[in-house]
Amino acid sequence: MNIKLLAVGKTDNESLQKLIDEYIKRLGFYINFNLEILPDIKNAKNLSEAQQKEKEGELILKKIQSADVLILLDEKGKQYTSEEFSGYLQKKMNSGAKQLVFVIGGPYGFSDEVYKKSSGKISLSKMTFSHQMVRLFFVEQLYRGFTILRNEPYHHR
Fold first, then answer.
1. Other CB atoms within 10 A of residue 116 CB
2. Which terminus of the chain is less hemmed in, N or C, by CB atoms within 10 Å?
3. Is the pTM here over 0.85, yes or no?
4. Where does S-adenosyl-L-methionine bind (predicted)?
C-alpha cells in the first residue's frame, strides 16, 4: 500500500520543513510515502470562503484516483490514541487498498465535493494548529503508528 499526504500551500518555515523531511525519510523504512503540496490559490484574498474551498477542492480532487481511499484531516473527525491510529492503519492495509490519501485542507476546510468523496475524517486534536504544524504532527504520528505495528521502541519514548 502507498500512503500520500496532500496539503494545500507550501511550508515557509525551514525548521518545520527539516523535521517533516526527517519523518518522511524514516517512513521510507515502513511504507511508500509521498507528501504532495498543492499550490496556494492565487488571489485568495479576493475570493469568498466558499469560492476558496471550491477552488482548493478542485485541486484536491484532481489528485485523487478512483481506487484511492480518501481520508480528511478535519477538526470534526474521529480522534485516536497513537495505538488506536496504528490499528486503524493496519485495518486499512489489510483492506487491500492500493493507496491511502490523507488531506490537509486550506484555512476554511473542505468543499462539499471533497467531503462527499472522502471515506472518513480524522482529527489530530481538539486544539487548532497551523496547517504547517499539522503536517509535522501527522507524519510523526504516521511514523509512530508504524513503530507500534512493528513493536519497536520509539513509541515508548
1. 10
2. C
3. yes
4. 73, 105, 124-129
Comparing CA positions, the residue from 147, 110, 140 lying closest to residue 125 is 140
Domains in the chain: boundaries: 2-156
Residue 16 host element (H or E): helix 14-27
Task: Name the architecture of domain 2-156.
Answer: 3-Layer(aba) Sandwich (3.40)
Calpha distance 153→107 (Å, rounded): 36
Q: Which residues define the annotated binding site? A: 73, 105, 124-129
**Known binding residues for S-adenosyl-L-methionine:** 73, 105, 124-129
Residue 46 backbone dihedrals phi, psi, to 5 degrees:
-90, 0
